[in-house]
Amino acid sequence: MDKNTITGLILIVAVLLGWSFFFQPQPTEQAQAEKPQQAQATTETQQPQTATAVADTTGLFADRIATKGETATLENNLLRITFNTLGGVVSKVELKDFKSYEDYHAGHTEKALVLYNEEDARTEFVYEFKAQNLNTAAYNFQIVEKSDSSIALALTDSAGHQIKHVYTLHHDSYLVNFDIVTANLQNTLSAKTKSIQMNWSDRVRQQEKGYYFENMYSTLTYKSVEDGTEKLKEQGSEDEQVTGGVDWIAFKNQYFSSLIIAATPMQDVRVASKQEEEGSGYLKHYAAEAALALDLTGKQATQLQYYFGPNKYLYLKGLNEQTIGEKDQDLQELVYLGWPLFRWINRFFTIYVFDWLTSLNLHMGLVLLLITLLIRALVYPTTRKSYLSSAKMRVLKPKIDELNKKFPGEENAMRRQQEMMTLYSQYGVSPMGGCLPMLIQMPVWIAMFNFVPNAIELRQQSFLWADDLSTYDSLLSWSSDLPLIGNHLSLFCILFCGTNLIYSYMSMRQQRDTMSGEQAQQMKVMQWMMFLMPLFFFFMFNKYSAGLNYYYFISLLAGALTMWYLRRSTNDAKLLAKLEANYQANKANPAKRPSGLAARFAALQEQQEELRKKQERFKKN
C-alpha cells in the first residue's frame, strides 16, 4: 500500500470521525449551561402558546360550559382509547402489546404501555365566531352515538347549532378516523372564517431504560406537501413556522408515535419541541398549531385521522392504503434509516432480511448474528481479493526494498514511486486492492448504525447478560454520572472496542509487512490513529444499545477470524512463483506501465513533479 493509499485511509478515518462528531448529540448539560437570559428567550419563542379555553357564558352552547367531563372507551386487539366528553377529545391511549421498560423490568406483564394521557397532553379546537372565539376544551360534549368501534360526541344547543366529533377505530389497527362535523354555524361564524384552529401538545414520557439514547431518537416530525418529511432537531429546543401545507404531524419518541393526519393539508402550521431535563421522567414537550379546513355550510366534514402505535417501517408502509387523503402519506418515513446511500441499504436489504429472520421466531441475538454472518459472507470475495493484494505486496517487499536503495532520498521520491508502480504493474499487483473491503463495509456499518436503534423488534428482548437489546447493558453501574462515561460500563461495548483493537492490530501488521522506507514511517502514525479509534468508540458507544454494540462486536470478530484464516491458508512461496510467472509474461514489454486507478495516480504524481520543478526554476530566476 503506497503513500497515496495511506493518505486515502487517513481521509476515510477523518470522515468517520467527522461523521461521528456530527451525529453525536450534544450533552444535555450544554443546553442547561446557557445564560439565563438566553434560556428565558428560548422558553418564550420555542413553545407555541396554546389558546386559553375561553367559555362565552352568554353565547352558543353556554349551558354546556363545564370543568369536568365523563369518559368512554373504544378498543380492539391492539389498543384501548379513552375519550373525555370535556372537549370531546382523546384523553388516553394504551398499547396492549407493549409496556414501558419500568413495567417490563418490574415484571408487570399485565400493564399496557400508556402512550398518550390527558395528564400530559392537550387538544383544543378554536372557532372564530362573530362575537367571540370558542375553545372546545371548555365545553362538555354529549355522547350521542356509540358502538364497538365508533363513538360520536356532540356539542349542541336548543337553536340547532352543533359541533360533533366522530371517532371510528379501525379493526386490528392503530388508526382512528376522526371527523369534525358542524351544523347551522354559518350565520354565527365570522365571515372570514375558513378554518378551525387546532392546538395540540404533549409532554412525552420516557418509556425506555436510558434517557440519552431514547432522547436521541425522539423528535417532532411532520410531512410538508412541498418538501416531504421533515423533523425538528433531537437535542435542545426548536420551533418552526412551516411554509405551505402539511399532511401530518407526529409526536415521536424512539419506538412509538402519536400522529395526526389531515385529508386536506393543514395550513399555517407552527411546530415546537422543548427538551426536558434528564431524570424528570420526560423526554420532550411537543406542541403544534395548525389551521384545519372547514366547510362553512357544514356539508363536508373536516376529516382527520390519528395513528397511535409503533414506529415499525414495514407496518407503517403497509398503512398507506388505509390512510385518508388522495396520496400515500409515507408514514414509514417516521423511521429514520440514514442518508440516501445508507437508507437504500437498510430499505432494500437490511429490513427485509431482518423481517424474514424475525418471522422464523428466532431469538433476536441469533437474528443479529445471522445478519452479521450473511453480510460477511457477501463481502468475503472482496475481502479475499483485498487480502491477496496485500499478500502479493508482502512477498514483493524485498524488491521494493531494492528500489528504495537504488533511488534514495527525497529528491528521488517521484522516480522511486514511478518505478514502484511500474514494478507492481509488471508483476500483476494492484496496490489499491487492499482498500476495497473497507470502502464496501463502511456504508454497511453506518447503515446498521441507523437501523438497529430503530428496530422495535429488539425492544425488551434479553440476550446473555443484557436484559434489553434496545438499550445499554450494565456490567457495572453507579449513582452519579462520570465525564464521558455516564453511570455505567457496557460489557458489549467493551467487547466491541476490545475486538476493534485486535482487528486494528491485525490490519496494521498486515499492511506493515508490505511497506518499507518512508511508507513504513508513515504507517507508524497510522497505527496510532487506528489504535486510538477503539478508545474513541468506547466513549461514544457506552450509552448506545446493547444490540448495536453486539452487532459491531460480532462483525469485527468475524473479520478478525477471516483475516486469520486467509493468512493461514496462503502459501507465500506459491504466490511469489505465480507473480514471477506474471513478470516473465510481461518481460517482453519492459515499458509496461500501470493501468486503471494506479495509472491515474502515476499521472498525477508526474504533474506534481513537473510543477515542483517549475517552481524551483522560478525561484532560481
Describe the structure in your own words:
The protein is of the alpha+beta class and 621 residues long. The chain folds into 2 domains: 3-25 and 347-606, no CATH class; 34-334, Beta-galactosidase, Chain A, domain 5 (Distorted Sandwich), CATH 2.70.98. The protein contains 16 helices and 20 strands. It has helices at 3-23, 28-32, 36-46, 101-106, 211-216, 313-318, 340-359, 364-395, 397-406, 413-427, 436-451, 491-512, 518-541, 546-569, 572-586, 596-620; strands spanning 71-75, 79-84, 89-95, 113-117, 121-128, 133-135, 142-146, 150-156, 162-169, 175-183, 195-205, 219-224, 228-231, 238-241, 246-252, 256-275, 282-293, 302-310, 476-482, 486-489. Strands 5, 6, 7, 8, 9, 10, 11, 12, 13, 14, 15, 16, 17 and 18 form a 14-stranded antiparallel β-sheet that branches. It has a 4-stranded antiparallel β-sheet with strand order 1-2-3-4, with no helix packed on it. Strand 5 (121-128) and strand 6 (133-135) form a beta hairpin. Helix 7 (340-359) packs across helix 8 (364-395) and helix 12 (491-512) runs antiparallel to helix 13 (518-541). The longest helix is centred in the middle third of the chain and has 32 residues, at 364-395. It is elongated and about 105 Å long. The protein starts with a helix and ends with a helix.
